[in-house]
What we know:
Blueprint: E1 2-6, H1 10-22, E2 26-30, H2 33-42, E3 47-51, E4 53-54, E5 57-58, H3 59-68, E6 74-80, H4 84-92, E7 97-101, H5 105-121, E8 126-129, E9 132-135, E10 140-143, E11 146-148, H6 152-163, E12 168-170, H7 171-179, H8 190-205, E13 212-215, E14 219-222
Parallel strand pairs: 1-2, 1-3, 3-6, 6-7
Antiparallel strand pairs: 4-5, 8-9, 9-10, 10-11, 12-14, 13-14
Amino acid sequence: xxxxxxxxxxxxxxxxxxxxxxxxxxxxxxxxxxxxxxxxxxxxxxxxxxxxxxxxxxxxxxxxxxxxxxxxxxxxxxxxxxxxxxxxxxxxxxxxxxxxxxxxxxxxxxxxxxxxxxxxxxxxxxxxxxxxxxxxxxxxxxxxxxxxxxxxxxxxxxxxxxxxxxxxxxxxxxxxxxxxxxxxxxxxxxxxxxxxxxxxxxxxxxxxxxxxxxxxxxxxxxxx
Length: 224
């Protein structure tokens, strides 16, 4: 899962970044409205943490732009404790949740998880696709109740495919999801092919059918 942290307070930005990376999220950061605009137009995210007060503008402007172009990301606005009007306006503009400063990082993690589940998996803690089951809070994958040991990248790849089941997703989109900003520095998709091969092998060894279809010239599709 990929998160964009839009926050100009460096200490808070670093704390959020380190904590969420420890929780196995891929995280990118932006410290201004201009930097955030560039990222949200170039990349897709599962959740955006959006500070309202930015040095060159307002996070509410970013929220308006996201809704104007129908970006599907879950959005959690971050506000000062006394800024009720900002929270109300942000929710009215389409934000999914809000946090007031200061907040506990464990609460941030819970809010992020809840927004992603609600946006992508109907609020459920579990994903079920035929014999494949995923416990999202526990990051546990099973095939016919048999645990499948996946690396972090393999797990992220499976969740991304499940979130986009029955759709063709490009190699570029998958690479960006798995590697964030670093994807554009990769000249080849060898790392993606390796993760895809290992994921398919591990699922097959556990007794799963092969649902990951290669769509030549386009990308991959997870479907029956």
